[in-house]
Amino acid sequence: MLQSLHFKAPKRPRAKPRSAQQFLDYRKSACEGLPDYAEELLTWCLASAPMKQAPQLLWRKLPRSAGYANHRDWRIVLSCLVLLEKSQVYETLIHEYAHLLAIDRFGVAGAGHGEHWKACMRELGQNPKRTHNYETVTVNRQVVVYQCKTCGKFIERKRRLPRGKTWLHKACNGRLIHVETRRPSEERK
Ligand SMILES: [Zn+2]
Ligand SMILES: [Zn+2]
Prior knowledge:
The structure is a single chain. By secondary structure, the chain is α+β, with helices and mostly antiparallel strands. It has one domain (28-182): Zincin-like, CATH 3.30.2010. The chain is built from 4 helices and 6 strands, in the order H-H-E-E-E-H-H-E-E-E. The protein has a 3-stranded mixed β-sheet with strand order 1-3-2, with helices on one face. The protein has a 3-stranded antiparallel β-sheet with strand order 5-4-6, with no helix packed on it. One zinc ion binds next to helix 3.
C-alpha cells in the first residue's frame, strides 16, 4: 500500500497546442461512466413518476445545449460535450424527463416551462427553476431560444423574431414559442 504513496508522477506531455480531436478525446474520457449513470437515473425517474412509454436516451455532440427532450420521437438527447459531471447529468436528465412527463399527461399543453412542467419537476423532487442555466455553456453572444410547440425541438437564434406575428417551425409547421433569451453574461453554474 505504501508504494502507492511513492509512485512516480507520469511525465507531462510536452506542451503542444491541443488539436480539436485531442480536445474531444479528453472530453470523451471525462464523460466515462456518465451514460451508465444516465440509464440508472432514467430507471429511477420511470419508477418515481411513470409515463406510458419509456423514452429513448441518446448522446450527441450538442455544442451549446446540455440536452433536450423531443416528444415526437419520445427521446431525451444529452450532450457529451457539455455534460462532464454526474451532477450535470442529474440536473439535465430530470429537467428533460419532466418535459416528457408533462406532455405524457397533458399533451402539447404540457410543452414549455409552464405549470405542468413545474408540477412534474416537483413530483421528481426538484425545484422548478425558471432559468435553467445548465442548458447554457459559456455564451459570448446573445442566444434567443424558441421551442416548437408541435415537435418540441429547440431552435436557437441570434435575435428575437419580430413580435405580433405567428412564427412556424419550417420542418413541421408547429408554432414557435419564445423560451428564453440568454444574455452574453450568463454562464453555466
Ligand atoms: Zn427545458
Ligand atoms: Zn416542429
